[in-house]
Design goal:
This protein is α/β, with parallel strands linked by helices. The chain is built from twelve helices and seven strands. The N terminus is likely disordered.
Amino acid sequence: MNALVQSLAVVGSDLDLERFLADGFALKPQLADHLDLSLPELERRLPSSTAELAALHPGAFDPAQATAFYEQEVGTGHLLDLAAWHLGSAPYIADTLRLQQRFARGQVLDFGGGIGTHALAAAALAEVENVWFVDLNPHNRDFVAKRAETFGLGAKLRCFRDLEDPALPAQFDTVVCLDVLEHLGDPAAQLEVFEQRMGPTAIALLNWYFFKGFSGEFPFHIDDPLLVERFFSRLQSRFLEVFHPLLITTRAYRLAA
């Protein structure tokens, strides 16, 4: 770890909204260090990262290729894309952190957690016992594990490839799944998995964007009407929305009685 990153390291209790809005939890220096880039080179690459990631996509969505695409093909490009999104949309991301702060407790699952913003913030909360970060991309897992160590949260935040790992708890008290469902081959099936792994009083924080964009700028999103209808059918029959006052796309759900 270089001196710049060391100088920005803080204890987990300092990972509050103000810190996120100030520097994304020291995201730029940490990512530059992780990718062995200078800060000027990182700054140069961030604006084009989304277009570069989209260019890697095989085109029309193929559920059979989705796992391999996100696990193998995107490489470190996904880190750059996610960093650009989190830094460029900081006020919106901050509201999702406020929402998480409102509901997160106990055993927290961060499914498809990307660069770890929500996992780190959750791990810093006193109400949270452990955060279980799950992401297909090994580069994401490696980066998040290093970030957790930097912030003194390594014992509280653990990283895994998938939910099949026997080290994960059978049930979670909080499920966080943000900007992920639209990338899955069968989002309704993922809801079923969450339902099975949620405790009786658990809360799930979910959002989705089943749209490829007006100009095809999101080729990695699914928009198949049948898949989307099945998703909403499952959501509306098995989950009950819990009101929150924040004006964001992310919603909170508990299991329906």
